[in-house]
Structures are given as structure tokens and as C-alpha cells.
Amino acid sequence: MFTRIVKMRFEKENIPAFLANFETVKEKIRNFPGCTFLELYNDKNDETIFFTYSRWNDETDLENYRTSELFKNVWSVTKPMFKSKAKAWSVDTLHSLK
């Protein structure tokens, strides 16, 4: 299992449209085969910066999502709203304390 972190910066006027679209697709993303967790975060100091954290069983599951019609549709709506290019990281959890 690993976590995918995506940092996105939006044009301020596009934030309501991004949030509305996320609301309509979040359950589909979370229920995509291999996705076990999904959260959306907003930077405390810059309202135009958002992060998605998603957990995936393995890299094949993420790749299947990234080549799916769902991702293509989500990204085709989201990408034009960016103020700057999105950044993404795939990370392994070394320690988790609850």
C-alpha cells in the first residue's frame, strides 16, 4: 500500500467549480478498484492550494485509475482550472501513529 499526494494550485475564481466537481467525483475515485482512502485538503495560508491524499493497494491500481475514463474526465475538467502545473508524489508509509 502507498499514498499518492497531489498538490494543485487553482486560479481563485475556479475554486468553487473545482470543489463542485470534486463533490460529484469523490465517491467514484474512492470506490475505484484499489483505492482505499481519499481526502482533500486546503492550505491554511493560501486558499488557492489544495492537496489530494489517496491510498492505493499497489502501483498497478493507480496506473489503472490514471488510464481510466474516470481519470480522463476528472482531469479534463480540473486541469484547465490550474494556476500552475500540479505536482504529484507517491510515498510509502514508514511509520503511522494513531
User: What is the approximate shape?
Assistant: globular
Query: How many helices in DSSP terms?
Result: 3
- Indicate the radius of gyration in whole angstroms: 13 Å
Approximately how much beta-strand content do the residues carry? 35-45%
Please mark out the parts with pLDDT under 50 across 5 or more consecutive residues, or reply none: none
Helix content: 25-40%
End-to-end distance = 17 Å
β-strand number:
4
- Seen as an oligomer or otherwise, the chain set is single chain
Q: Characterize the largest beta sheet: strand count, sense, and whether it forms a barrel.
A: 4 strands, antiparallel
Average per-residue pLDDT, rounded, comes to 97
What is the H-and-E element order?
Answer: EHEEHHE
Alpha-beta classification: alpha+beta
Major beta sheet, strand line-up:
2-3-1-4
Q: In brief, what are we looking at here?
A:
This protein has 98 residues and is α+β, with helices and mostly antiparallel strands. It is built from three helices and four strands; from the N terminus they run E-H-E-E-H-H-E.
Q: What secondary-structure arrangement, pairings included, does this model have?
A:
Elements (H helix, E strand, L loop, with lengths): L1 E9 L4 H16 L4 E8 L6 E8 L2 H8 L2 H10 L3 E10 L7
Antiparallel strand pairs: 1-3, 1-4, 2-3
Any overview of this molecule?
Helix 1 packs antiparallel against helix 3. The chain is of the alpha+beta class. It is built from three helices and four strands; from the N terminus they run E-H-E-E-H-H-E. Strand 2 and strand 3 form a beta hairpin. It is globular. Strands 2-3-1-4 form a four-stranded antiparallel sheet.
